[in-house]
Amino acid sequence: GRGYEVKVYFLQEPTSNYLHEAVSTVLSIDEK
Hints:
The chain has one domain (1-32). Helix content is 44%, strand content 0%. It has one helix at 18-31. The model has no long low-confidence stretch (mean pLDDT 87).
């Protein structure tokens, strides 16, 4: 099989609203 590069992103600080942060992160990755 093929190996694909995987980038892991971490939050700088804990968040109380992980769903909002997850959506925000996905959208910012999509813009790159």
